[in-house]
Amino acid sequence: MNAFNTRHDAANARQMPVKGRPLAAILIITGGLAALALAMAAATAIGAADIRLSTVWDALFRFDPELSSHHVVRDLRVPRALGSALVGAGLAVAGAMMQGMTRNPLADSGLLGLNAGAGVMLAVCFAFFPQTPYILLMVYAFLGAAIGAGLVFGIGSMARGGMTPVRLTLAGAAVSALLTAVSEGIALMFRVGQDLAFWYAGGAAGITWPQISVLWPWIGVSLIAALLMSRSITLLSLGEEVAAGLGMRTRWVKTAGMLVVLILAGSSMSAVGSIAFIGLMVPHVARFLVGVDYRWIIPCSAVLGSLFMVLADIGARSVNPPYETPAGALISLAGVPFFLWLARRRGR
Amino acid sequence: MLRSKKEGKRTAGMFAALLLVLALALAACGGNNNAGESNGAASGSDNAAGGTNGGTAGNGAEQEEAANPQERTLTDALGNDVTIPANPQRIIAPYLEDHLLTLGVMPAAQWSVPNGVQDYLQAAGLEGVPTISYNLPPEEVVSFNPDLIIVNSPSLVQNDLYSQYSKIAPTFVLSDETTADWRAALSKIGEVLGKEEEAKAALEAYDQKVQETKAKLEGKLEGKSIAILWLTAKQFYMVDTKTASGAVVYGDLGVNPPNIMTEIPEENRASWNPISLEKLSELTADYIFLVNYEEGQTDSLIESDLWKTIPAVKAGHVYEMDKNRSWLYSGAIAGQLVLEDIERVLGE
Questions:
Q1: Which DSSP symbol is given to B212?
Q2: A116-169: per-residue pLDDT in tens?
Q3: Of B194, B227, B254, which marks where a domain is finished?
Q4: Does a structural domain hold residue B128?
Q5: ipTM above threshold 0.85
Q6: Cβ–Cβ of B278/A49 closer than 8 Å?
Q7: Considering only CB atoms, which residues of chain A are within 8 Å of chain B?
Q8: What is the CATH number of the domain that holds B147?
Q9: How remote is the C-alpha of B83 from its chain's centroid?
Q10: B interface mutation test: which of A64, A67, A72 has the most B CBs within 10 A?
Q11: Residue A57 lies in a domain
Q12: In the beta sheet, which residues pair with residue B151?
């Protein structure tokens, strides 16, 4: 089905000139940003603690450090909403770029060995350095993601004939399987499975200001880089020969692109754990709405990804209050049926 | 024509995949129930192994049992007829050591996980007793040459493990309901070991201790509420009214549970209720007993500004209970230690 779709996409691309739908895209971006603003406001107002809107307003603009409700808004809800938005954008754009560059419609950052790499690093931290501060855990998770991606690229490009999408996918699957086995082994030996499982479930509940301050420059810069590269991604998505024929230095673009993906996905994941499906689904939705031009797909993915993640996080705390439901699970629950529907529609 | 054929094939494929998943799920569920069928065929013939390297095991038990040296057959929670040896010397009863010690019996091996044992029982007599893994690998069980195995949950003898254990020694399985109520578990184990009198005496002694503590704290707990929190891996858990120290504080002493607990409908409560810092901000309890597994963690949640605005925290009424104490455990010994802690803290 995978190969079938790829061929189908390529056929599509050949049949019609690469044409986006700028009008739709602009509508989505402006409307999406407005919706995002509303959603973030809602995220600040909704939560386990019962806090009135007027109190929320006071907390933001007339902060009283003595009141716990003000701390709830400022120290928990605002960073959580901001973090969700950042991470949603990061994951969605990373997925869009992966799909464009590898021409694999099922590509997302998990395929690069990022999740598995981060998982191993976290397992090691939980098992051997249980006192590691959380902010450092984030750094280690990122390092692990980088190692995982490094392994995948190393193996993928070692083969004769260089790196191809298929090789990369296979290397990603193999390396992920290996790394996952290692982290599960560590989890079993040292009984840190539960800590790991929590991380794998994913969620924005624990995001704090220090994490945001580390996150936003990386994600911000990478998002801008992704936008600047979007034209090259569109060309790559037509096939490497086409891109090279048009005078593009494909190797350079692919390396830079993968670096952007690594930073976006790695830093997002280190903050919220492995959240599947945003990276896979959102770019598809964007492509469905605005056409195949990545100059529009990438910004739309960013906006839709943010919006989706913020909404999922609101869901995470409202489904079964006062308990938190893992946002990752909610996203998959909502995402899978939609995605199947979309896949069938596109297949027609 | 061709297309519709393909379409039909794909639909059929999807359907088949769904069926397969269903079948697998069913198979997985069905597989677990067989443990009970294999009967406890092993009889007292293993007894010979007992005396030789008995060492620390059950010196006290020997004299007690001498009066009543008969093999007995009891039915366990899985319906197995288990022949209990007349005078078991080398008992393995993981995570039930509290009850064994209460009855004056020293186990041949004690429960352990890779990063620890039941700390509070070491001083109570388990110091120096060899450890056995929490999941009872049969090889380890054999190496201790037990003459009686008591298991605290049917889930531990799944997948035909029961027949493996029962070939090593008679194996008695407690139901999860029995284990959840330490009084029932103590009585049951008393019955299995022929120490009903001791069990009864221990329960009476415990109730006596409860009355004493109540008397000492006379007037100090009226109208007050206490929250018992366990902090581990960036997450607070509220100890339920029926579990471990919760059963002692809320059940035996009759102290009011905190507002954020009573707000949760009883059927939604777990033994350890995960509670977000946001919800915790609404806590109005007068005292907080905190079991802190994040000690020394610089970015621990109890360092946050929000934690410091909780009324009980502001008032300095947070009592950190050492990890080596028994607040997360159940049993006569565990309960008495909890009572001692409360008396020490609130008694002045």
A1: H
A2: 898 899 889 888 887 777 778 888 888 998 899 889 888 877 777 666 777 887
A3: B194
A4: yes
A5: no
A6: yes
A7: 1, 47-50, 65-69, 71-72, 75-77, 131, 133-135, 189-191, 194-195, 198, 205-206, 208, 210, 317, 320, 322-324, 347
A8: 3.40.50.1980
A9: 25
A10: A72
A11: yes
A12: B173
Q: Which residues from chain B sit within 8 angstroms of residue A194, using beta carbons? A: 233
Using CA coordinates, name the residue in chain B closest to A75: B306
- DSSP lists the bridge partners of residue B230 as B237, B291
Distance CA B27, CA A324 (A): 31
Structure tokens at A348: 């027609």
Q: What percent of chain B has a predicted confidence (pLDDT) above 90?
A: 60
Residues B89 and B143 in one domain: yes
- The confidence score (pLDDT) of residue B113 equals 84
Judged by CB atoms closer than 8 Å, whether chains meet at A322 and B299 is answered as no
- Which amino acid is located at B161 in the chain? L
Structure confidence by residue, pLDDT tens digits, B72-112:
899 999 999 999 998 899 999 999 999 999 999 999 999 99
Q: Which of B166, B194, B222 is the last residue of a domain?
A: B194
The tokens describing A100, both together, are 């464009």
Contact A69 B233 (CB under 8 A): no
Residue pointed to by tokens 């600047």: A228
A-chain residues within 8 Å CB-CB of B306?
68, 71-72, 75-76
User: Could you tell me if B165 and B240 lie in one domain?
Assistant: no
The answer to whether position A218 is within a domain reads yes
Asked whether the predicted pLDDT for residue B345 surpasses 60, the reply is yes
β-strands B235-239, B272-275: how paired? antiparallel
Determine the distance from the C-alpha atom of residue A12 to the mean position of all C-alpha atoms in its chain, rounded to a whole number: 27
pLDDT in the model for residue A6: 46
Tokens of A113: 């060995």
Q: Which residue in chain A is spatially nearest to B232 when comparing CA positions?
A: A195
Domain count, chain A: 1
Residues B314 and B184 in one domain: no
Assign residue A199 the CATH number of its domain. 1.10.3470.10
Q: What is the pLDDT of residue B14?
A: 53
Q: How far apart are CA B189 and CA B187, in angstroms?
A: 6
Residue of B nearest to A197 (CA): B233
- Show residues of chain B in contact with A317, CB under 8 Å: 276
CB spacing of B234 vs A134 below 8 angstroms: yes
- Interchain contact, A322 vs B275, CB within 8 Å: yes
